[in-house]
Structure prediction request, 454 residues.
Amino acid sequence: MYTLKMAKRMLLETNKRLLWNLVWNLGVKGTMSVFAHRRRMRKGQFFPPFLYVSIINSCNLRCQGCWVDVAHKQQTIDLTAMNKLITEAKQAGNTFFGIVGGEPFMHPELFEILEAHPDCYFQVFTNGQFITEEKAKRLFDLGNVTPLISVEGNEIISDERRGRSDVYDNTLAGIDNCLKANLMTGVCTSLCKTNIDDLLTEAWVDRLIEMGVLYTWFHIYRPMGPDAMPELCLTQEQQRRAREFVVEMRAKKPIVIIDAYYDGDGQALCPAANGISHHINPWGDIEPCPIVQFSKESIHSSEDDDRTLFDKFTQSEYLADFRTLAQETTRGCIVLERPELLQQVVEKHSAKDATARGTALQELKSMVPRTSQYHPGHEIPERNLYYRIAKKFLFNDFGVYNGHDHTNTAAPFIVNEAADGSNSPMPTATGCCGGSVSCDEPDVVSLGGTEKDG
Prediction:
C-alpha cells in the first residue's frame, strides 16, 4: 500500500522535468558517486560523495543553540570559488551538494551558483522566509534544486526557538510559495524537548502530506556553540522514540523520511566517520562536520597550498585522524560522546579555530560527555524494504567499525557506569547534558565523583 501511494504521489504531484532531474542527477549519478567513494575507500582514499557547503554565515534569525556566527561580519563563498569547488568535486564523481548557512537565500549569488551547474542536484537548507513567489518560480525554472525548509514548532515555540516573531507564519508562507510553484519541497525539524511532542507526531506528518510536501527530515538537536542550551537536548528515551517513529512512518506514510544516523539494521553511524560527508564553512575551511569547527585545509588556493580539492581531502592527516578516532571510539557522535578525545586530535594537528568568534576550543573543553544516536541493545531495524535495500548499498558504515570494541570508550557504556557508581575515564560535570535540568535517564557523567541519576 505504501509503495503504491508513494509512487502515485511522485507521478501525479510532481513536475516530470523536475522528477527526471532528481532521478538522474541525484538518484543515478548520486548512486555512482557513492560506489566511487567505496572504491576509493579500499585504496585508503576518502573524498566524500556528499559535500555540505555553508555558503554564508549571515542569517535573519537567532536560533537557540546555533553554532554559526550569524551576527558577525558577513562572509560568503562567492560564485568563482563555488564554481571551482563544484567543478573539482564533479571530477571525483560528485553530483549532490547540500547548501547551508546561515541563511542561503541571503547569499547574493545563490541563483547564479545553482544555474552554473545544471548537471548537479542541490538541497538548500533554509528557514524559507526569503522564498517569495518569484524566487520559487526561479527555483522551478532551474529544476536542479530542492528547498528543505525548517519548522521548529508551533507559533509560540517557533518564535522562542528562532529568536524572532511571526516565524511560524512566515516559514509556512515560504513553504506555500514553493508548493504553488510545484517545487519538490521538504520540511525538516531539529527535535528538542520543546518541540518533540508537537512535531514528532503522525498528525504533523499527515499535514505535511496534505500540503504537498514530498519529504521530511527529523534531526536531533545538538547542544553546541557559545550558547549551547543543553537543557533542550533529548534524553536517551526520547531519541529512541524518534528513531521508532521514523521507522514506523516510513513503513506506512507516502512521504520520504530522511535520516543520517542509522543503517538498515538500525545500527548507529556517523556520516563523517565513514567519510560519506564532510563540511565546508563560509570561510572555505574544510571541517569533518558542521559542529566540528576546526580545520587544517581550505578550499581556497594559496602560495602555501595549491593542491587540488581532491588532494586536500585525501591527504589530510587531520581528517584521517578524526575519522580513525570516531571509528575506534563509538558508533555515535564523537563530539558529543568524547569531546576530550576530539580536543586531543585538534591539538595534535594544531587545527585552527574555524569560527569568527574564536572560542571553539574553549567551548569544546567545557563540553560534558553525553549520549548521542548510539543506543546499543536498542537497535530498531528498517521495516520498509526499500529503505533497507537503499541503505544496504548506499548508506551504512561501509565496514569502518569492523573490529572495534566500543564497550570501554562509547558514552552509552561509560555514562551508565558512572550513574551506577563505576569508575569512568571520562571528565565529569553536573546536571543533564551539562546543565542544571534533570533528565529521565543518565545521559551525562557527573562531577567530582558524585553520582547522578539523570
Remarks:
- Residues 2-317+373-394 form a domain with the TIM Barrel fold (CATH 3.20.20.70).
